[in-house]
Every structure is written in C-alpha cells, then in structure tokens.
Design the sequence.
C-alpha cells in the first residue's frame, strides 16, 4: 500500500511540475482560441476532456464554429487523433495494462488519457518504479494534468475578454519549447538525435520549400535518430 501511495504521489508531483507547466501553456492558448471563436465555456472544457489532443481540439473549435456537419466534424477530429494510435499502444505496453485486474472500460479510459507528455513521463518512470506501480503513477500524473490544464483553459478563456490579444498569446509559444526540452530530457539517445537533427534541417530547408520543411525535417530527423540508435545498439552488442 505504501508503495502504491508513493507512486501515486510521485505522479501527482510530476504532473504539477514541469510537464504540467508545459501542457498548461498549450491549454491556455486553447482557451484563448476557444474564447476568440465564441465557443461556450462548458463545451470548451468538454472538448478538452473528451479529445485530450491539442490538434484535435483546435480542429474541433475551428470546424464547430463555422457550422460543419457533425459527421464531417467527427471524421476530421478522429483522423487528427489517429496520429497518437501507436503512442497509446506503446504507453499501454509500458504499463502492461493487461496485468491489472480492471474493467475494459477502465482500460479504455487510461488509454484515452495517454498524451505525448504522459507517454514521455512513463518512459522515464519505468526505470524508476516497478512495473506494477506504473499504472498508479500514471493515475496520479493524469489527475494532476487534467486538473491544471482545465484551470489554465478556463483562465485563458476568461482573460481573452480582458487583456490584449498580444499578451494572452505569449504562453502559446512555451509549448514548442517545452516539447523540445521534453525530448532532449529523454533517456533514449534517438529522441535527442531526432530533435537536434530535425531542428537543424528545418530552418535550412524553409527558405526553399516553405512549410514542407517541417514535414521533411520530421521525417529525416526521426530516420537519423533511429539509425543512430541502431548503430549504438550494434556497437554495444559487439563489445
């Protein structure tokens, strides 16, 4: 029981720390965007909990406010969120969700709440906690993240009506910086190599191919990261 309490507390503290600050910056921006679009506050919060994905939430607000048919709205958001499918599978594998005696609905809930931030923290926690403690850790982490992001979403939504747009937009720029730092803090070397190489390739290509540079940089950065990981593993196996 003490170990579980310790893992849950660790998850809470982690969620209210650096990861929570990073996600809060993004959700503050989402709250501003929803307020600017005229979305109802409760619908704004509902989208946060139900979609739990920044691209999906932005697409939802954009399409909902222009009266997009519900079927097209649902399909578009679904396709946007499909990008996290393998990330969710990886997170559930780390937790070893099938080893826990919980209902299928509970498994779906925790799978739904895996975000890039949650996944990154799980990859770190797996080296610090026992496998059976990881789900408890994730519960604490998720509770903290949902709480702090809900608060900052409401804050961004409300402040949009009182402060100049230039001021309330500042925290939005924290999210890219946070994600970069998050990947650089990762234990596995290929994450760091992918971020650094992609960060170099993108600005070099942008003057020539514009927005396509982001896609190309991601593709080549990830490829370089995986190739580096392969070389490191091969070198270690030969030692």
Sequence:
């Amino acid at each position: 029981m003490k170990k579980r309490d310790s893992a849950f507390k660790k998850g809470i503290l982690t969620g209210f720390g650096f990861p929570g600050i990073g996600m809060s910056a993004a959700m503050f921006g989402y709250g501003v965007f929803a307020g600017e679009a005229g979305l109802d506050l409760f619908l704004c919060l509902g989208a946060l909990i139900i979609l739990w994905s920044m691209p999906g939430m932005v697409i939802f607000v954009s399409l909902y406010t222009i009266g997009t048919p519900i079927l097209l709205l649902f399909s578009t958001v679904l396709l946007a969120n499909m990008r996290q499918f393998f990330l969710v599978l990886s997170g559930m594998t780390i937790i070893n969700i099938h080893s826990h005696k919980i209902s299928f609905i509970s498994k779906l809930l925790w799978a739904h709440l895996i975000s890039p931030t949650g996944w990154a923290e799980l990859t770190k926690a797996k080296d610090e906690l026992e496998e059976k403690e990881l789900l408890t850790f994730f519960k604490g982490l998720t509770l903290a993240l949902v709480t702090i992001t809900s608060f900052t979403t409401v804050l961004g939504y409300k402040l949009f009506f009182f402060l100049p747009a230039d001021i309330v937009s500042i925290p939005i720029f924290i999210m890219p910086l946070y994600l970069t730092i998050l990947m650089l803090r990762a234990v596995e070397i290929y994450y760091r190599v992918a971020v650094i190489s992609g960060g170099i390739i993108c600005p070099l290509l942008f003057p020539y191919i514009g927005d396509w540079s982001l896609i190309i940089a991601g593709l080549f950065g990830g490829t370089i990261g995986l190739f580096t990981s392969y070389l490191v593993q091969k070198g270690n196996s030969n030692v």
